[in-house]
Amino acid sequence: MTSEMIVNSDAIELLAEIKRVRDYKDTLAEQEKHLVQRLYNIVSEHEELISVDEHGIPKTVATWAYAKDSERFDTKTFKESNPDLYNEYVKISPGARTLRIAK
Q1: What string of H, E and C letters represents the secondary structure of the chain?
Q2: Cα torsion for 52, 58, 61, 66, to the nearest 10°?
Q3: How far apart are CA 96 and CA 89, in angstroms?
Q4: pTM for the whole structure
Q5: 45 falls in which pLDDT band (50, 70, 90)?
Q6: Strands 58-63 and 48-52, bridge-based pairing
Q7: 11: number of Cβ within 10 Å
């Protein structure tokens, strides 16, 4: 079931602001990714970055941490190998409602 609504100027302004915020967020995420890569290129494989203050006292300013290895259940292979058992445990969840703004 779908329904339509003719929007007022307030809704149009909100949609425009949402678009601006999303574009800005994407730009910031891209900048962060670029800056982190530049820093990684400088520090190479060191795991801790230390700064020394005016009194000669070292202070950790950043660390690189490795994410824990993950285990994932291979549903595709399981479904191919055991289709009946797979179907027995499939649970369907309703999809989320997502705002899509037309260009």
Answers
A1: CCCCCCCCHHHHHHHHHHHHHHHHHHHHHHHHHHHHHHHHHHHCCCCEEEEECCCCCEEEEEECCCCCCCCCCCHHHHHHHCHHHHHHHCCCCCCCCCCCCCC
A2: 130
A3: 21
A4: 0.61
A5: confident
A6: antiparallel
A7: 11
